[in-house]
Amino acid sequence: MSRTVTVKPFDYVIFGATGDLTMRKLLPGFYYRMLAGQVPEEARIIGTARSPLTRDAYQGRALEALKKFIKKEDFDDAKIQRFLKLVHYVSLDGSKPESDWNSLRALIPQDKADRVRVFYFATAPNLYGAIAKNLHDKKLAVGDARVVLEKPIGIDLASANDINDSVGQYFKEENIFRIDHYLGKETVQGVIALRFSNPMFEAVWSSDYIESVQITAAETVGVEGRAAYYDESGALRDMIQNHLLQVLALIGMEKPASMAADDVRDAKVAVLQGLKPFDSRTVASHAVRGQYVAGKMGSENVPGYLEELGKESQTETYVALCAEIDSPRWKNVPFFIRTAKRLEQKVSEVVITFKPTESRLFPTEAKRNVLAIRVQPDEGISWTFNAKNPVHNDFSLGQATMRVDFAQTFQTRYPDAYERLMLDAVRGDPILFIRRDEVEAAWTWLAPLMKAWADKATPMAHYKAGSWGPDEARDMLKRHHAQWHEDMSL
Ligand code: BG6
């Protein structure tokens, strides 16, 4: 179990408390934090949603969620009962001033300055402004009350600015916690440690030695029960704008001046702002969008995206991009980014391929060194390098791979990304949250691509469910003399 930093008693109000995210991630996350001793007994988790439920009925739903989403071995009746005592419910439409705000106010002690107040917005993002205004007008957003904004922050730069402006009227930037759960993943944070605590990596982290970087977030699931959201969003907005660009920023950033939140965020935003803009040529040559068609996941036949959706759609379920950071460190180094639903395997990883050595000393050619950072599952790293192959009597080389499994090395369980982030908001620690300028830089970079795709300026590629994606994405890498990493045994 990970070490915990105790937090002050808190009132954590969740808007959208009957939704999938609350049930799947937030409530189980709080339960695990309670098991870890981080949630004080006086804490209160207050669900709000429009459904007219009693507290008992909501606790019943919470119990069902815990049964479903926490591991059997962690389910303990007495602890579950202790947890449910923390859970309250108010039937409330957060976007409506005439809703039952009095009941919510009655649940939150008004005079206890030492309690932390957090409002978590897990609703549709277009409601964030109205909820923030109501919290202000109803005098609930007092003191240093914090607000956690779930992604996506908008669907483009203009809508993101609207959301940020309207929430920003009532909450100071330092109290706005924009969540990107990839930053809650230990292995994503681990990139900073790996890069800046090991001379062996720090010294070679540039175009002098690195040939290319690949960032992958592959999923086996389809759109699950979220077709309405997903079809509006697509893979570019759902995964690239936030999660994958955050990983890219951590791989690409300069050394931050310190580990203070703003120093790290300054370093990240410089990368995002330094991404080379797409132009009419590169939207075609440096980007591939695709949709899955019927195929096989293991032995199961699965329908294509359009069949699942039951209508025509131009929404992409696959994206592969070739990005470039315009900085001396990364001159001419392609960053290949891809994400998709219904690929062969669920895996998130970063693969760094190093330039080959120029020396021709040996009878066989030295292969490229490869560093793979496995974000999930099987969190760890692998390092593939050349070694003298002892089978031969000369200096012939062979490839050897060192693998490190972090869970085994550190004898710990990997918490779900949300656990840490939810409590970081209580602690008021913004390091793993997204600053407004990062959101803006990401949307700005994607704008020409979104426009080209909306104008159907580039074709939609297709790939079979259960495959590794469309040929067009393979061809894009071939043009860079590269290939996608598909041997996930590394
Ligand atoms: C979410 C996306 O942000 O991330 C989902 O909305 C996606 O579509 C999920 O499935 C992936 O997260 P993870 O942690 O499973 O890689």
UniProtKB/TrEMBL annotation:
Protein residues bound to substrate: H181, K185, E219, D238, K341, K346
Catalytic activity, reaction form: D-glucose 6-phosphate + NADP(+) = 6-phospho-D-glucono-1,5-lactone + NADPH + H(+)
Pfam families: G6PD_C (PF02781), G6PD_N (PF00479)
Active site: H243
Keyword DNA repair among record annotations: no
Metabolic or biological pathway: Carbohydrate degradation; pentose phosphate pathway; D-ribulose 5-phosphate from D-glucose 6-phosphate (oxidative stage): step 1/3
EC number, UniProt record: 1.1.1.49
Entry protein name: Glucose-6-phosphate 1-dehydrogenase
Signal sequence, renumbered to the chain: none
Binding site for NADP(+): R50, K151
Top-level lineage group: Bacteria
Protein task: Catalyzes the oxidation of glucose 6-phosphate to 6-phosphogluconolactone.
The organism of origin for this protein: Candidatus Kirkpatrickella diaphorinae
Keywords attached to this entry: Carbohydrate metabolism, Glucose metabolism, NADP, Oxidoreductase
Domain Glucose-6-phosphate dehydrogenase C-terminal span(s) in chain numbering: 193-485
Entries under SUPFAM superfamilies matching the protein: Glyceraldehyde-3-phosphate dehydrogenase-like, C-terminal domain, NAD(P)-binding Rossmann-fold domains
Domain Glucose-6-phosphate dehydrogenase NAD-binding: 13-189
Family affiliation: Belongs to the glucose-6-phosphate dehydrogenase family.
